[in-house]
Specification:
Layout: H1 4-12, H2 19-29, H3 33-63, H4 68-72, H5 84-93, H6 98-130, H7 136-148, H8 155-165, H9 172-175, H10 182-195, H11 198-206, H12 211-222, H13 224-239, H14 243-248, H15 257-266, H16 274-309
Helix pairs in contact: 3-16, 5-16, 6-10, 6-13, 7-10, 10-13, 11-12, 13-16, 15-16
Length: about 300
């Protein structure tokens, strides 16, 4: 005869995993077929996107090693007939090295213009965020309206203003219009509100720092990820700018790379020998953008990390 205690223990003890429990364990151990297919589809789409993005760059690298015959033959994706050294030599010596002059002009327009624009935008965004003054929000609304106006629509008015002031066909006719960026002001205000605490500025004022010293020593350093972001956006926009130099400049010695390569490309139908110059020059024109993004990406990473901590 079985005792009540023994019967109760046998009833309470589990007899082993039921078929339903075992199926659940197997399901957790191996991913479902539908989930595996969805992951494969996402990875496939990403690989296609990367291939689509890198395809022009790969073509540019291989085509820059071809002479005129190799480019016109249509076999640009092979390194047969490697002629990159000759192309670089011709590029540097053609028309007394005018390409190098265009390269320096682009570095001046994009580098100098982007640094000054980023500094102005950061200071303006800092002022809109940290100071209260009459009509602040209305003035900021005007800045936002400037974001909606395309730059091409302003080219003719800026040309008329430059003509009145005698700046047409000078470096200043391209530099001055790119020193202000409404989107950079908006972005800088957002960064200032996120990265610069009011307590730090109050402590600086208590220690005797003026407003300019507080901005330069504290505010600008805290908002450096925003400064770098505005700089990269403006550097890319100025480097690729075409319409404004086309309107303002007529002297080839003042051309940026975008306008100079366009002038060479216009001559390729009459003189096919310009094809290697245009392709090799386009490859070299990409390098400053790549260097800028690679060298400054750590500031973006620092900004994203700070935002995650907050």
């Amino acid at each position: 005869m079985t005792s009540p205690a023994t019967t109760s223990a046998e009833t309470a003890a589990p007899a082993g995993p039921t078929p339903r429990t075992a199926a659940t364990v197997r399901t957790k151990a191996a991913p479902a077929p539908g989930r595996w297919l969805s992951r494969t589809a996402v990875n496939g789409v990403l690989l296609l996107s990367v291939a689509y993005t890198l395809f022009p760059l790969v073509w540019l690298v291989t085509a820059a090693t071809k002479d005129t015959g190799g480019l016109l033959s249509g076999d640009a994706f092979s390194f047969e007939g490697f002629d990159l050294g000759h192309n670089l030599s011709e590029l540097a010596s053609y028309n007394d090295g005018v390409y190098l002059r265009w390269y320096l002009n682009s570095l001046l327009y994009a580098g100098g213009g982007a640094v000054v624009c980023a500094l102005i935008s950061t200071a303006a965004g800092y002022a809109f965020d940290k100071y209260d003054f009459r009509g602040k929000e209305k003035l900021f609304g005007v800045v936002l309206l400037g974001v909606l106006v395309p730059s091409t629509a302003l080219a003719l008015p800026m040309y008329l203003l430059a003509s009145k002031t005698g700046l047409v066909n000078t470096y200043w006719s391209v530099l001055v219009p790119v020193l202000v960026n409404p989107f950079g002001v908006y972005l800088s205000r957002v960064f200032s509100a996120s990265y610069i605490p009011d307590e730090a500025l109050e402590a600086a004022r208590i220690d005797g720092a003026g407003e300019l010293r507080a901005f330069w020593s504290i505010g600008l350093r805290m908002v450096m990820p925003g400064f770098v972001t505005v700089f990269l956006f403006q550097f890319t926009a100025i480097w690729n700018n075409f319409f404004l130099p086309l309107v303002m400049l007529s002297d080839q010695k003042l051309f940026p790379l975008s306008l100079g390569l366009y002038a060479w490309n216009s001559n390729t139908h009459a003189e096919p020998s310009f094809y290697p110059l245009v392709v090799t020059g386009s490859l070299l024109a990409v390098l400053p953008l790549v260097v800028a993004f690679v060298a400054l990406q750590r500031h973006w990473k620092a900004g994203l990390t700070a935002g995650g901590v907050k």
